[in-house]
Design a protein that fits this description.
Blueprint: H1 25-39, H2 46-63, E1 66-69, E2 74-79, E3 82-87, E4 90-93, E5 100-105, E6 111-115, H3 132-136, E7 137-139, E8 145-156, H4 159-164, H5 169-186, H6 190-196, H7 198-215, E9 220-231, H8 237-306, H9 308-323
């Protein structure tokens, strides 16, 4: 073929586009070879091209032969696509040119999935929901509707199972979490879901999620299931708030009644026990006094039987000893006296009348 068009005045590799002759392909190939020779050092021939290709190959191999594993992760190495080994954190080397492929798995990092809401700036595409409204709409056991938001926190416990047993472990975990939460919520009333049954729901959901994760060999360990906002649908929100307010008022009155009960009842119980103890003490006192009087009387009767006159006189004297000290004025008269009037003090002052 002729090369006149390539060396023409147009100065372009394709020659004069205005002409009717097609471009000369041989000339184009020779021109490309000349430019490649100029780029190779030493302007060599075949050995220069092979040396340059070898240098490129060596540089690419060195670039792809080392990798670094973070401190919170491990690396799973595959050789020709098959699992080879698991390496700890640090700097490691592998066979280059995609012969060995290292996949970093964060086994020490706590991951989470959010249902019904999303945290801004999340790097994990499976952390935030695709359709949060659809995930939160659930039916309770008493056929009421509730909007349930929750968070699942988990860790990767087995990197090999996580990578090779399940095709999409994170997406599968979202499906498992939603299924379990719907099952647990469907076994309870709306009042239990929204108020008193939150802790039981979290514990039961955690147990069932872990059972399914183990059954499916997902290599995931569930750390915590935490319920967030649980609300009724918007059309019944106002009515439900009134019911909650009434229940809170009821609980308040019950707590106040229990407080009064705990304050009054123990006091009454203490007074009752005190009076019972006082009555028991008084009973024992009276019994002991009576028994003492009976014993004293029996002893006195025995002595009286032995010497009646002496005992009678001694009792008389002892009685006078007990009685006489309590009398302010004493008048002793003879048995033959007819009257005691002359002996009375008639000059004593009379009490003044008011």
């Amino acid at each position: 073929m002729s090369t006149n068009n390539i060396k023409g005045g147009s100065g372009t590799p394709w020659g004069d586009r205005s002409g009717s002759n097609p471009p000369d392909l041989d000339a184009l190939l020779r021109q490309g070879q000349d430019r490649l020779r100029n780029l190779i050092p030493g302007n060599g021939g075949q050995f220069g091209i092979l040396g340059f290709a070898a240098l490129l190959l060596i540089g690419l191999g060195m670039w792809t032969s080392y990798y670094t594993v973070p401190s919170d992760s491990v690396a799973v190495v595959q050789r020709f696509g098959q699992y080879h080994k698991e390496v700890p954190p640090g700097l490691h080397f592998k066979l280059p040119l995609s012969i060995d492929v290292a996949t970093i798995v964060p086994v020490k990092r706590q991951l989470k999935q959010e249902f019904g809401f999303s945290t801004p700036g999340a790097s994990d595409p499976y952390q935030s929901p695709v359709d949060g409204r659809k995930e939160t709409e659930m039916v309770t056991g008493d056929l009421n509707a509730a909007l349930v938001e929750w968070v699942v926190q988990y860790r990767i416990s087995d990197p090999v199972k996580y990578l090779f047993e399940v095709r999409e472990p994170n997406l599968t975990l979202r499906y498992v979490s939603e299924s379990v939460m719907r099952e647990v919520v469907g076994d309870r009333t709306v009042d239990e879901v929204i108020t008193i049954g939150r802790q039981e729901i979290e514990i039961e959901a955690l147990t069932k999620m872990q059972e399914l994760s183990t059954k499916y060999s997902m290599g995931i360990s569930i750390d915590q299931v935490q319920l967030k906002n649980i609300n009724p649908p918007a059309p019944v929100q106002a009515s439900f708030n009134e019911v909650n307010q009434a229940q809170q008022e009821k609980e308040k009155l019950i707590n106040e009644a229990r407080r009064d009960y705990n304050r009054v009842i123990p006091l009454a119980e203490g007074e009752k026990d005190q009076r019972i103890r006082e009555a028991d003490g008084y009973r024992l006192k009276r019994i002991n006094e009576a028994e003492g009087d009976v014993a004293r009387f029996n002893a006195l009767l025995a002595e009286y039987s032995k010497a009646p006159e002496v005992t009678r006189r001694r009792i008389y004297i002892e009685t006078l000893q007990d009685v006489m000290p309590g009398i302010r004025s004493k008048i002793i008269i003879d048995d033959q006296a007819r009257s005691i009037l002359p002996l009375l003090n008639l000059d004593s002052k009379k009490e003044s009348k008011p």
